[in-house]
Amino acid sequence: MIRKYTFGTPLPTDAVVRQLPAEAGALPYFTVSRGEGGSLSFSISLHPEEVLFGLGQAVRGINKRGHLFESWNSDVFNHTETQSSLYGSHNFLLFFRPDRLFGIFLDDPGRVTWDLGWTKHDEAVITSLSGNLDLYLIEEDSPVSAARAFRQLTGRSYIPPRWAFGYIQSRWGYASEEEVRNVAGEHRKRHIPLDAVCLDIDYMEDFRNFTWKPDAFPDLARFSREMKEDHIRLVPIIDAGIKVEEGYAPYDSGKALDCFCKKEDGSDFVAAVWPGRCCFPDFLREDVRRWFGDLYIPLLDAGIEGFWNDMNEPALFYSDEGVADAFSRVEALRGGSVGYEAAWGLKDSFESLANSLADYRRFYHLVEGKPVRHDLVHNLYGAGMTRAAADAFRRRCPGRRVLLFSRSSFIGAHRNAGIWQGDNFSWWSHLKMALQMLPGLNLCGFLYTGCDLGGFGCNVTEDLLERFLQLGVFTPLMRNHSALHTREQEIYRFSIWETMRDTVSVRYALLPFLYSEFMKAALRDEMLFRPLAFDYPGDPRAAGVQDQLMLGEGCMIAPVYEQNADGRYIYLPEDMLMIRFRSAEDYDLVPLSKGDHQISLSLGEFPLFVKENHAVLLCPGGESSELLDDTRFTVLGRITREGVYELYRDDGVSADPDPAVCITPVPLALQESFSTIQI
Ligand code: MIG
To answer: 275: which of 68, 106, 222, 617 lies 20 to 30 Å off by Cα?
Structure first.
């Protein structure tokens, strides 16, 4: 059951698709109190065993209890465990304990803080800074049905084209056709499967959106065609800011249509990002979304079928006003004696120029025709950009899917795009963080997601990349991405590239199966990755597991995330078959009983666990998702009771596939561990 409680005068967010009447009675479970400046706090005491699931993109464990989180979309390069905000705000939290279950969604586009047992271990205090919000209370009898109810409230998850489940190579720095061709060629030459290459800001002319460098990418349509002949797609990046430059068409048209966010005095707000001084489209306006979305069309017409939207928190390097303020603070200190506090202040004046609250308070959006200061709707900006692009794709390519993943997001954006997890580092702890973020993102509707495999910042090592890839085998977005000036991170750069290739080959053997699991989850409003407690709510040990996830209907993953570990500890809530992969053809099948196990996994090995009477399907390999044979399978699983596996297959591009037509029942005959089948 879902109930809505309205506080103050909420601004529209586009998060929900079902309109509910507001309840007249008081909100149960919570004590509501009004604080300074109209803020509103919801307090609740927590049971010793209470587990908190959700909040989507956030650091720390699967259980969110014990930390202070903030919904405030932030371009943060440093995902340490003290970070309270990342790029997206996903205000859905599930309170789970043996005798009680409910979820809350705060539909609030401004800042929200989540003190989840941080101040006091047995109390949660959730605060909306503005005090204007709709709060949805979801009461169901299982976590799985609560997740489904929330999805039905907020709408079906985005479905990318099937090729987006292939391996994607990306790097900040690919600056010419020649370079991209070479990257693709190295993969093909060594038979490392590959479906797409991302183009980062270096493909643009002076970092201006919707342009490409005339010398380095002379004919995007031809180049895209050439790559597609090799079954490889190009996926260019688009940033949020539009360079202020007369004669640059998007600026001129944006200016003519008055599309940019304004300062109080009515002039365009300007701040610097990669192209230099930029204006920021007011994505909260329908007409602006339409104008911006149309700018993608020449790229679509050049054969581009996928995009990633970046810098849309929006990230701001600095504004003229911010720089002026910093100088005035510095000037005020000139000539006097500078003590240590003032000296630190000097330093802070400049370090705090980027993404400053002062800048976010300097500009306005038009919401229903009225100016609203940006900080009150800050968390909607990335979602608005995504919506602009997705709507344009629907207009231009009706009935066809286009790949889109964004950095910043809000609930509701999950209907239009996937997200990637942002700028992680080549750290072992970030491999674990990536795993732990998946179920929260899925709970909030973001199914098409993954982290930068290998890590974005810092220099990766061979073993770390291999272990990252082993997680990536299972994440819908399987993309190797790294930052400019870091160690080159393409698989073929490493001495153990064959091991890495074999790992990617497992993804391709599993691709039709993983796609089937993804599609069923999306079409049935379910999660692809779940905390163990979702499948075993009555098992008190399952609730505590922080580094294993249920995958699809019948599987579980438990990647190795520690350096030099030659295996790991796992907890099995029931008997399962372990598939220990080395490659698509080389794996062990090990039946394991319910309980605790230490399993050995040397560097090139990784496990997938299958529940009894469930199966995993492997297809004959191929180096692109388009070249896989999804009619012949090896069926892995321990089947003690005859049944069927519902295999979902479709053309991979049509936007509204009919689930009834797309499902083939694959009979599961009694078997100890494997069989082959033709369908
Ligand atoms: O300020 O486009 O998260 O994936 O490579 C950095 C360059 C801008 C941040 C993205 C990252 C991308 C990078 N971008």
So the answer is: 222
Q: How would DSSP label each residue in 131-185?
A: --EEEEEE--SSHHHHHHHHHHHH-PPP---GGGGSEEE--TT--SHHHHHHHHH
pLDDT score of 336? 82
- DSSP state for residue 65 in the 8-state scheme: T
The pLDDT value recorded for residue 660 is 86
pLDDT score, position 92: 98
Distance between CA 397 and CA 381 in Å, rounded? 24
The CA 423 to ligand 1 mean position distance, Å, reads: 7
The angle subtended at Cα 500 by Cα 495 and Cα 505, nearest 5°, is 145
pLDDT at 333: 85
* pTM for the predicted model, two decimal places: 0.98
Q: What pLDDT score was predicted for residue 576?
A: 98
d(CA 508, CA 593): 29
Residue 200 CB–ligand 1 contact under 6 Å:
yes
What three-state secondary structure class fits 281? strand
State the CB neighbour count (10 A cutoff) for residue 341: 8
- The tokens describing 225, both together, are 């065609």
Q: Are 382 and 410 in contact (CB under 8 A)?
A: yes
Which parts of 456-509 are beta strand (E)?
A: 478-480
* Partners of 618 in beta bridges: 634
Q: 278: helix, coil or strand? A: strand
Mutate to test the pocket of ligand 1, among 200, 278, 419 (most ligand atoms within 8 A of CB): 200
Atom index in ligand 1 nearest the CA of residue 422 equals 3
Q: Which residue of 172, 209, 458 sits with most ligand 1 atoms within 8 Å of its CB, as the best mutation to test the pocket? A: 172
pLDDT, residue 341, reads: 87
Q: Which atom of ligand 1 is nearest to the CA of 77?
A: 3
Give the tens place of pLDDT for each residue, 314-353: 999 999 999 999 999 889 888 887 888 888 888 888 999 9
Strand 403-406 versus strand 306-310 pairing type: parallel
Distance CA 291, CA 369 (A): 17
One-letter identity of residue 605: E
How far apart, in whole angstroms, are the C-alpha atoms of residue 541 and residue 22?
Answer: 38
Q: Which two tokens stand for residue 504?
A: 């990617």
Q: What is the DSSP letter of 495?
A: T
User: What residue has token string 């002949």?
Assistant: 229
Report how far residue 417's alpha carbon sits from residue 411's, in angstroms, rounded to the nearest whole number: 11
Report the C-alpha gap between 362 and 292 in whole angstroms. 22
Residue appearing with tokens 């005020």: 332
- Distance, CA of 485 to CA of 173 (rounded, Å): 8
- Token match 């998850």: residue? 157
Of 171, 68, 197, nearest to 482 (Cα)? 171
- Cα of 194 to ligand 1 centre, how many Å? 22
Distance CA 185, CA 192 (A): 10
- Residue spans of the chain under pLDDT 70: none
CB of 207 closer than 6 angstroms to any ligand 1 atom: no
**Where does residue 505 fall: left (phi above 0), alpha (psi -120 to 50 degrees), or beta otherwise?**
alpha
Instruction: Give CA–CA dist 54/62, Å, rounded.
Output: 8
What DSSP string runs through 390-440?
Answer: HHHHHHHSTTB--EEEESSEETTGGGT-EEE--S-BS-HHHHHHHHHHHHH
Scored b (16 or more CB within 10 A) or e, 193-225 reads: bbbbbbbbbbbbeebbbbbbeeebbeebeebbe
**DSSP state for residue 260 in the 8-state scheme:** B
Q: Between 220-229 and 177-189, two packed helices, what is the crossing angle to 10 degrees?
A: 0
- Give me the sign of the Cα torsion angle 428, 434, 435, 440: positive
CA distance 92 to 448: 18
